[in-house]
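job 3f2a | input accepted
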Amino acid sequence: MAQYPGVPWNQRPDYLALTQRVDPAGVVTTYNPARPGISATDVTSFVYGQATITPNNWPEIMYYLHPPAEWTAFRGTPSPQQKIDANAQPMVERFPRQGLPARPLLDFSILPDTICSQEELWWIELWRRMDPRIRWADILMRIEVPNRTTDSDRKLQNSTNNLINRHDHPRYFMLAWHSTGAHGMRSNRVMTMVLHEVAVANPPLPPNSTRGLTPGLINPQLGNVVGNVVPQPPQRDGQSRLRVPLLPQAQANLPQPNQIQRAQVQNNQGRDNGGRSNGAGQKRDRTGPGPKGRPSKRQAQDFTDDTTDDNMDTGSDETTSSEV
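job 3f2a | predicted structure (324 res):
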């Protein structure tokens, strides 16, 4: 398992490959499979180094058990400067919070300029693992959220955080790398479970690796052969994607992107939601009381509540994020 000891994090071959923005040959310009969102502008903009990544061929970073020392060192380096577009204009978020100025878009090489509102959550895990300086604000401001408010950002952050911690990490045998405080992921049941499964794995796993537990190839050198693949675990519909609430009036009157960003967004070819619609009018109401007055499943498991599990530096986002 390649760890590249001593190589600065942003000079590692995998970092450089995943952050390559365009195909040098000019051939690959779209994602495969393609993944647009629920509107023409609701897409994950194209990054060549991420063009063919799927849950079946995750990068090696998704199989690291603990972050290496180079990751920790890179986390302490300054955030990048504001991104500049092709017209030499500073880039800002397309859908600012109501009554507040647009926040600057920082130039994180790993992050697409726009993120689909129904993007799969494991992408957020991958982006944050590849660049630990990314804060929640840097993710949220790239997502198309009509009628955005500070409260809607907080709810989206909390629901996404909870889904990753309570759903994805246990399923994929991953530890959270952005935990803060005594009650974070590194002292809870998920950490205990993951470390136990790694310790008792037979045959033993490679050092600092979850290959053999996390979905994907057990031994990459053998390829996709019988007995060498851990399949993706089953999942409930909707638990593996972002949950951006869209009010009916917002759906009928989507705001237009900022002028300085419109041309670039139109040129982006994005990932879609795998053919899924936003589900409006298709699901029965799960928010009302259940039989005999019991709370519904959604009420009992409110993913918008704050969590102390791996808060992914939510506190730092409020004080030192790119909002200023």
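job 3f2a | DSSP finds ten helices and two strands in the chain.
job 3f2a | closed
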